[in-house]
Amino acid sequence: xxxSDLTRTTASSVQAVVRISAHxxxxxxxxxxxxxxxxxxxxxxxxxxxxxxxxxxxxLESACFPLVxxxxxxxxxxxxxxxxxxxxxxxxxxxxxxxxxxxxQQAWEIVALEYARAVLRLKGxxxxxxxxECLQEITLxxxxxxxxxxxxxxxxxxxxxxxxxxxxxxxxxxxALQFDAQRIWPPLGExxxxxxxxxxxxxxxxxxxxxxxxxxxxxxxxxxxxxxxxPDMGLEVTLTASRSAAYCVVYTPASExxxxxxxxxHCTGAFEADDIADAGLKVLQxxxxxxxxxxxxxxxx
Length: 301
What we know:
Elements: H1 3-8, E1 18-22, E2 25-30, E3 36-42, E4 45-46, E5 64-67, E6 73-74, E7 78-81, E8 84-87, E9 98-99, E10 109-114, E11 117-123, E12 132-141, E13 144-153, E14 159-161, E15 164-170, E16 176-178, E17 183-185, E18 208-209, E19 216-220, E20 225-230, E21 235-241, E22 247-251, E23 258-264, E24 282-284, E25 289-300
Antiparallel strand pairs: 1-2, 2-3, 3-4, 5-15, 6-9, 7-8, 10-11, 11-12, 12-13, 13-25, 14-24, 15-23, 16-18, 16-20, 17-19, 19-22, 20-21, 21-25, 22-23
């Protein structure tokens, strides 16, 4: 699917919150404020935490937002690519590192809207040294809520690129998580990023309460599937990601009514890796694209 095809369908630049609904799923989308999801429910029960903010606010308060054109952090916004040094402007007061790309802070255009499908488009800004366009497609089907990103290099030079989604899930005392992974990476700090095998303190190879540990860590070698149990809400959620989401970030802040499980295409600190390809970063040649998707399937328990 390309942008010209979309323009010929249901072109719209609606900036208000829109809703799509099908197969028991309801999703509200705020394109103007970071291409975010405002809410996502199954049979009236929240699959994602609900964004109840009004007026100007950050996508960090949303139900989910896209990570474009990279995920997680670039240390102090500095990196080298193809022998050139780059310095990005700070984009969040809460961190000295540049975080989550720029898509979460930009207005997206709604280029297609149907009862069970919405497509949003973003054109990159000058804050990123390369030109790109990104499509975000949100579809409701029998298998669940499908979120998909397609990033295309619209410039004339190779571009480093990454993608991901940042969903927020409700967290109660009984919320539990399970997924398999081979390695865990520490948060981006001032020390070298060295992965190690998950141990009993941070492994989710068996279903365990999210409140058991406080994490902000990246995992790799994961199976692409995670299960979330919400006994207090009578809900079970299965998250399935495309193969391009080779990494996932787990964020479990203490004493918050949410946690995050973020499928992403590259590891934390990938821009400073000796081999960025080994760290998951893709180099997009002019005209080439990178895609990533996830499906949130829910059932009542």
